[in-house]
Amino acid sequence: MSAVLATGLLVATLLCIAANTFEVVAKAVSAKFVVRNSAEVGVGREWIRYLAVAEAAGVAGLVLGLLGPRLIGLAAAVGLVLYFIAAVVTHIRARVFHNIAFPVAFLLLAAAALGHFAWSAG
């Protein structure tokens, strides 16, 4: 893999960690935009804390993967990709398209993290 691609995937992984950390905190404090967006797509308020825990686990796994056990990072990246595929599908099923760019962007960051760990784990 080229050094440029490796560096780009690492930067995207760091951005994935930062963006998801922000989201976890927003979910933990029940930020208005989180509650509003969840309601729009039909996700009950009671699910927000569980989603925050799942997303936090992904963030923790990415960080651990960067610190050493690459397979943990790989597993975390796979989990986040699946999480955001579900988020995009949820937006599509609810026909909420005005803010679908956010879960799509998070999905792309998670996919880049997956690429980073897939190439660096082997």
UniProtKB/TrEMBL annotation:
It is a multi-pass membrane protein. It is found in: Membrane. It comes from the Bacteria. Keywords: Membrane, Transmembrane, Transmembrane helix. Its main location: membrane. Pfam families: DoxX_2. This is CHASE2 domain-containing sensor protein. The chain crosses the membrane at residues 47-67, 74-94, 100-119. One of its GO terms (cellular component) is membrane.
